[in-house]
Amino acid sequence: MTKKYAELPPDRVDDLKRAGLKIYQNPALFCFAIDSVLLAWFTKTAPNDRVVDLGTGNGVVPLLLYGRNREIGKIYGIEIQEKLYQLAVKSVALNNLEEKIEIILGDLKDAPAILGKGFDVVTANPPYRKKGEGRLNPVPEVAVARHELLTTLEDVVATAAKLLKPRGSFYLVHLPERLPEIFTHFTRYKLNPEVLLPVQPKPGENVNLVLIKAVKGSRRKLEFLAPLWVYEKDGQYSEQVRRIFEGEE
């Protein structure tokens, strides 16, 4: 079991390298990974858009979305794990963004009841693995983030569909092997996949992540983009990923 919070190492502050934003993290509990950074980069928002991030963790996606579009409307992040919620709240306060970003402690399935409907954009970086699949991390906070212990892929898609206005956009990062299931849920909840970006660790290697944009009520054909790779063959970040990390793209 995780140590009691009082016994954990102190939270650290990391630079998000965008618009001067910083974030609280705790390596013993949770640190964001490249998938969250790519999700925020892939997500397109307009001025005054209202946004919900499902399973926000320490709030990295809302912060990066604001950093990319400071004319964005209100951003809500909902997180069920109390310690991660606390990290997110501290991060929002650290950046003086309480008027722009609100973090809610709760189950993402309750987001429509808490926040209502009619949102322009919903984002999600949900647990990738089904319950009972693979090794469970001994740290509960990490286990919940990686495995579907408290929510399922269908829960996430159904909630996004309820939150969105007609023609609202849902941005999701997930594993390529779960694409058939993702598309099945999209069809059931009337979300049409419009853009799919495969992500490779290195050029020529198998895709290990997919970024998907789905639009509520759309009939547009799917645009399948050329792969983005994270590393060059020499192990250095690719130029595009470096630019994303450095806030240049």
UniProtKB/TrEMBL annotation:
Residues 47-180 form the Methyltransferase domain. Transmembrane segments: none annotated. InterPro entries: Methyltranfer_dom, SAM-dependent_MTases_sf, tRNA_Adenine-N(6)_MTase. Pfam families: Methyltransf_31. This is Methyltransferase domain-containing protein. It comes from Carboxydothermus hydrogenoformans (strain ATCC BAA-161 / DSM 6008 / Z-2901).
